[in-house]
Write a structure and sequence with these properties.
This protein is of the alpha/beta class. The protein has 2 domains: 47 residues, no CATH class; 309 residues, Methylmalonyl-CoA mutase (TIM Barrel), CATH 3.20.20.240. It is built from 15 helices and 10 strands. Helix 11 runs parallel beside helix 12, helix 11 crosses helix 14 and helix 12 crosses helix 13.
Amino acid sequence: MGLFEAFDKVNHQDWIDKILVDLKGKDFKETLVWNSNEGIDVQPFYNSNSIVSTFTPLKKYNSWKIRETIVIHSIKEANRKALLALKGGVNAILFIGEIKDQAEMNDLLNDIQTDIIEIHFYNSAPKFTLELITQKQGSVSYDYLGECLFSGNWNAKENDLKELAEITLKNNTIKTITVNGTNYSNVKYGLVQEIAFSLSQAVEYFNLLTDKGVDANTIASKIQLTYGVGSNYFFEIAKIRATRKLWKLILEQYKVTDLTITIHSETSSSKLSEEDKNYDIIRNTTKAMSAIIGGCDSLTVLPHDTTETSIDFSNRIAKNIQHILKEEAFFDKVNNPADGSYYIEKLTDEIANKALQLFQEVEEQGGFLACIDNGFISNQTKSETIN
């Protein structure tokens, strides 16, 4: 007889009955159930009866790239920061800003081994930028739809789409389509809204580019998603997992198989401590853990102190958070580390269902661009999320 066969099986109702006895007349829901900002009732316990499905599509391995973001104010200064970041152990860099010509690009990438370092560029001239580089990994992109959402216009839409189609069709592995979900998380939209609107953006890119002759498989292979990650630990884990689950459903509609979404995570920039900035080091650590356990492909931990005298030290600490999680806590050695958690699986299902419902509302109103025009997205209630 096995060890566990000696014990009577305890079902979900048995636990409820025991809890009700211990509560001595107190209301179960009012006392123990937490209603989150997303409208999810978080129970005091979960078991196998709590979940409908146990499979959440994830990437094959739990490794991730350590990325640093560098805004280009000066080409030489951006190169200095990049080399300092590489010395500190990053293996991916995002440059934000325009590069004027080949000479500037050469200066920007001077002494950077682009054959082994993943380089990303974000600016409003991706076609021109792509012509200046030779590396085979990373991205060159501009989130036209995300920028349109907040600017209210897209002046060169047809020309931009033509160029986006051209660079997406190029026979290389460079990502050319970016959906920037931090547009929502950093301005207090809830994580359900972040998922739904980000996926609506992605579908809008599919529709716009297929109209330009780009096939769905190519689009799926060239798209990447950036998410903000806040301090709501378990919910942030479930957010990334729910996105992969919904992405699989979306790709099935386009008859695309065996492709997953590339997800970059970036710690949220809001709610930094006013009392002691060291608190934000701990806060950034838990955010990073959520992103990694959730299954991000790369991660940027923003510095906890952005004052001029402290920024280099803060960037070093931000990188070291990831080094500790990778080299000392071995977070990259365990595939699907949240596997077996009924709570996270249930959260994943509930968040996915709510995001799918909101996503469908956007699609019923004509899609992402239509919901910019009619104000549906901007009129959504922003939640007091934990950042």
